[in-house]
Predict the structure.
Amino acid sequence: MVEAYLNVFSINGLMWVILGAGVGIFIGAIPGLSGAMIIALALPATYFMNGSDALLLLVAMYIGATTGGLISATLMRMPGTESSIMTTLDGFPMAERGEPARALGLGVLASFIGGMIAWAVLATLSPPLSIVAVRFGPFEIFSMTVVALTLIAAISRGSLVNGLLAAGLGALISLPGIDPVSGSLRLTFGFSGLDTGFTLLPVILGLLVLSQVLIDCENSGDKIEKSMESSKVTMRLDDLKNNAWNYVRSSLIGTWIGILPGIGGTTAAIASYSVAKASSRQTEKFGTGCEEGIIAAETANNAGTVGSLVPLITLGIPGSVITAVLLGAMVIHDLNPGPLLFAQNPEIAYSVIAGTLAANIVMLGIMWFATPILAKIMYLNKAYLLPPIVVFCFIGAYSASSRMFDIGIMIGFACFGYLMQKVKIPLGPFIIAYILTPMAETNLRSGLVVYNESYLPLLTRPVSLIFLLIAVVSVAWSIWGEIRKKPSQEKPVVNAHKLTESQ
Amino acid sequence: MYLSSKIFRADLFFILMSAALSGVVLYGTKTLPPAYFEPLGPAAFPKAIAIIVIALAITKLITLLVTSPKTVNGHSKVNWIRIIIPVIALLLISVYSILLSYRLLDFRITTALFLFIFVHLLKSDISARSSLLILIYSTSLSFAMYFTFTKIFYLNL
């Protein structure tokens, strides 16, 4: 184990970590290009490397890409990666009011802390946690997704009906394709392109990125007011002290959800944001550039990233698309992923763990120096920024499955997202329901099969019961908050843009 | 009057679209097989969600119809000039996708043209010098993207 750490922190090891983290941050920051894409594309390049160096490079890319998504999510309201969707809710409003460097600094520090706490779990508790994680049954996972779905009510500020309507549409969109339990085609209406359903990447790119491009086209000549705060130090030690519990809680939520196979960093960010909002004393500030929201989302998604490595190296179970690619990398380099990895190739297992630590430190270093420079992107002329983003979206959507049908889906959802924003229907609930509904359906139906068509285990299994109680309390609290609002205090939801008209 | 306002028409369009989408899904569930070996089957979730969306759409419609005109004064008025640019941008993006899908022109030329036109669309002040700079920007970016994704990442563009 010590040798693995010495190897990772040697010149050769650090070189691969810096390269991987740098490329990952750069690619993750570009809307349209995802971490999964760059890691899959980089895999062939690792053929001629030794296994340890290859995994170092890929793991560093993974961590860098997750953090890189924060940049475009904060500065342009376009998540660079799926897991940074929740960061757009508070990161962009904070940047819009002239504090982009502060928003980025909070996100970077949160990413670092989330990654470090998850690394500590990875390094010390991997084997026992993996055993517990695979015992999480379908009803537990269903209940957990119900908790995350209750965030829909929480983030539907101003109009619960609009939020629920958006969520319902998102759920509907997630249904076409192959039925997860029976395997039959469902709601494809004969279109072969819909056999795989509306795939995630084109939907996210169209709904969140291209629609935002269209919105920005309306204001392309406007300039953002530069706040006096924006050039000050972006990360403060006070942040650690004032938000300590948020960091720890979000890290643990993200790590645990990352450990659960098949869930992913996006769900981790959603769940963490939901819990942070529910337990905050300033819930009304969430969605307006609240520090707690940025911290909760970014801490959890990075913790989830590292957490997903736990089942990979201990059990050989990939927890996400990217870890599936990492699994492929292990196979390519004649490694034996699974429970025997620690016995047969301990240097590889410990290299991955040490590489995670190194990648987090390198990521912090790169972002520390880059943040003030990156914050200036907010003030660049959008006429030069928006068109390349569209091209990157095309490349990103096409690269997933090499189908122009996905491009068509992306453009269709761009129109849909633009219309939604025009009639003040929130996008957040749509995306949350789109991502979580298939998971909820699969696990509920699987659970009913496992438990002989009985719903009772939802209430008798303690973990499931706890999650459902949290969900009920969360929804009741949101509805109570809506009812308590006096009619005279209701204000129409308006965009809080602080733009100056171009001359 | 609110009922004749553009905002109301946009909301109404959205409500009708939501209801129509739910109707299509409900229609699609008729051909789904029944539940085998499980109580719910493939049609349960689509039906439930479609019914919920229809109910929410009706709720939103009722809310719109009974909303006092005072409470909607906060809606920004539709500025048609500002909407024209996104519409043109959308048409440009659609044309770009058609050119790429039928491979009528090489990726590099198509992308350079697209970038050139799009930047001009968004820039408010255009001069001969700035057009030349935009041309250089578009061409170099297009070729750089092509090289990066085809030679380094082996994507088939």
About this structure: Confidence is low (pLDDT under 50) at residues 227-231, 488-503 of chain A. The longest strand of chain A covers residues 177-178. The radius of gyration of chain A is 22 Å. Strands of chain A lie at 177-178, 185-186, 223-224, 499-500.
